[in-house]
Specification:
428 residues, two-stranded antiparallel ribbon, 21 helices
Amino acid sequence: MDFIIITDTQEIKTFISEKAQLTDVYRGIQRNFVWKKSSIDGYRESLVKKRVVGSFVIADVSTCLDKAKELNNQSDIKFFEGFLDRGYEFISIDGNNRTQFIVSEYGKYIQDYRSSSSEIRSILNHRIKIDKILYATKRELHETAIDINAQTSWNKQETRNAELGSVSDYIREISDKMEPVSLKIKEINVNRLGDDEMLATFLYYTQTSSFNITPGKLTTMYKNNIELENLRLFEKVLSNWGKIIEFISNINPSNKPNVNKSLACNLFYFLWDVSFKHNFKLNDDMIGEFSQKYIDLENERLKVCMDLDSGINLWYQGNRSTSKNLDKKVKRIIEDFGDYINDYFYKIDSVRNFKVEDKLRKCIETNGEIKRLDGSVVIVTPLDSMNGDIVEGDHDTPISKGGETKPETNLTLLLKEDNRKKGNKILV
């Protein structure tokens, strides 16, 4: 079962009924329909004039699944079976915009072909070139897409997106999740994967702490499939970043993106450094107040950095590139926050667990009395208090809410089962 491409021509009406309506887009290679009005009008005109050029490249899912089974490639089997389970027999490798336009524009005439206008019938009878890929692995589909677009207008991020690997998969996953936020940011062209590139830059920063991030470095991260670290913290910081962008965008509501890209990027780098390097955690209850303070300080930076004589604003000039001199920008933002940072963040205690001696001392001080969640009281022995399967040390004020691991002021003994039920609630 060797990889093969079969080239044929087909009338548009046959292509719609036999292939296009059964074709799905794979996010790892192409995005869903992204054409603007000018592209739609131009392609419609080329159909009317019968000047359509270029082929539609599709992969036959059934033969690709056969190849995966032959190779016992479980990942590919799951991948291709997913398309069949959703009712699709083909994957668009190149020409997805054209395919979706043809289906939406002319698919409705298939049933009433004979009653359609002569112009519509002429278009439906026009023959187009189809390249059908058979017996391909998922990797070969990626490589084919890259080869097809090597001499076209793919930008660097679109090329990176077609790299097969864990990094590109992860970027696509978080990009899809964060798209509503990305749409609120100026200068981010979501249709051309500008949001993926921004998030890839964020991810690279968290993995390397590089202060100057170039497209070449991002490409290396994708191709080398580096082992990603600190993803739990990254996703938490990214979630807070998204909430803050949402809040800022609503300060002056607009139907268009209204948050500057430089502001959005600096905000993420600042949040990451404060969390990862300085061990602070943003108080979830203070996100609104923090957002307003961040904007206030940004406005103040723009004011003090304005040279009225020359007309040059140093802060604006320094932010024209959103991926250079990141250390200087973050340092300035942190300095501007000063002591205000304690109003919105709390220091995370690096020591999270009480020592055995702490629990033993507490047990002796309280004569072994432990209050249960239902209000009843049990008595434990000193030996019981030293056994982590029986008794645990509980933070009266949880670490997640700013509590510290200080036995003198923040320790209560709980039975293990009660402590697990309690979670990060504060008991009154």
